[in-house]
TrEMBL record:
Protein name, entry field: Dolichol-phosphate mannosyltransferase
Record-linked SUPFAM superfamilies: Nucleotide-diphospho-sugar transferases (SSF53448)
InterPro entries on file: DPM1-like, Glyco_trans_2-like, Nucleotide-diphossugar_trans
Glycosyltransferase recorded as keyword: yes
Residue span, Glycosyltransferase 2-like domain: 6-171
GO molecular function, one term: dolichyl-phosphate beta-D-mannosyltransferase activity
Highest taxon above the source species: Bacteria
Length: 259
């Protein structure tokens, strides 16, 4: 059985895909494979990915004809990875903002945890080349997420993470409606509600050098709306449990810690 699969979603990442795949393969052993999930990029990213796959059996390509957001791309990658028998599935950006050199340590942490989060906002984590307003937006969004959902995770919006096969099988992937960057909060929230063990480990996040960020105002609004909705729903379930069964729901804080 194959060990680990690094899923890299792409849309117009022709300048970035070859170097990030090369770094990923160099940083890991032969048990780690890469799946490029390309959403029909008009700049030829998919063709470059196919060239990489022809050069090594550690690289695979999944072409999608519908561009339905980051969440849709990762869900397709998860389904492919589970079908092909991988034990650990990794989320990683194509633009170089996530350093694949962290992968050996993150994969090791997955031996004793269900979900490993590469965190910018725990002690030792940091961002490089971000303007102050981007950092303020990320820190503020994560603070609101912690307060709204009652969780202890410092970086629930980060996109560099490792799931075990068991974790993905216990999360209701079919019920996920968020497609943008709120997808990351959605998965983390579902993992905590399912009682999975979540660990954060510090990383350095580096802003992309090539291409254009996919962040937008619509993404931020979607995130705020959904997080608020999930927080209210959790509190209503908590109240019903107290009235009906006279006990609280299992804590969503106790299973999260920092490595």
């Amino acid at each position: 059985m194959n060990e680990s699969l690094v899923i890299i979603p792409t849309y117009d990442e022709a300048e970035n895909i070859r170097p990030i795949v090369a770094r990923t393969l160099a940083a890991t052993d032969d048990g780690v494979h890469v799946l490029v999930v390309d959403d029909n990029s008009p700049d030829g990213t998919g063709d470059i990915a196919e060239q990489l796959a022809s050069e090594t059996d550690r690289v695979h390509v999944l072409h999608r004809t519908v561009k339905d957001g980051l969440g849709g791309a990762y869900l397709a990658g998860f389904a492919w990875g589970l079908e092909h028998g991988y034990d650990r599935l990794v989320e990683m950006d194509a633009d170089g903002s996530h350093h694949p050199e962290y992968l050996p340590w993150m994969l090791e942490l997955a031996d004793s945890n269900d979900l490993v989060l590469g965190s910018r906002w725990v002690k030792g984590g940091q961002v490089e080349n971000w303007p102050w307003y981007r950092e303020a937006l990320s820190r503020g969004g994560n603070l609101y997420t912690r307060l709204a959902l009652g969780i202890a995770v410092r970086d629930a919006t980060g996109g560099f993470r490792v799931f075990t096969r068991t974790a993905l099988e216990r999360i209701d992937l079919d019920g996920i409606a968020s497609k943008g960057y709120c997808f990351q909060v959605d998965l983390c929230w579902r993992a905590l509600e399912a009682g999975l063990h979540v660990v954060e480990t510090p990383i350095t996040f580096t802003e992309r050098e090539h291409g254009v960020s996919k962040m937008s105002g619509n993404i931020v609004r979607e995130s705020l709306t959904l997080v608020t909705k999930w927080g209210i729903a959790r509190r209503l379930r908590e109240a019903r449990s107290l009235v009906r069964d006279h006990h609280r729901l299992p804590s969503v804080r106790r299973n999260a810690h920092v490595a």
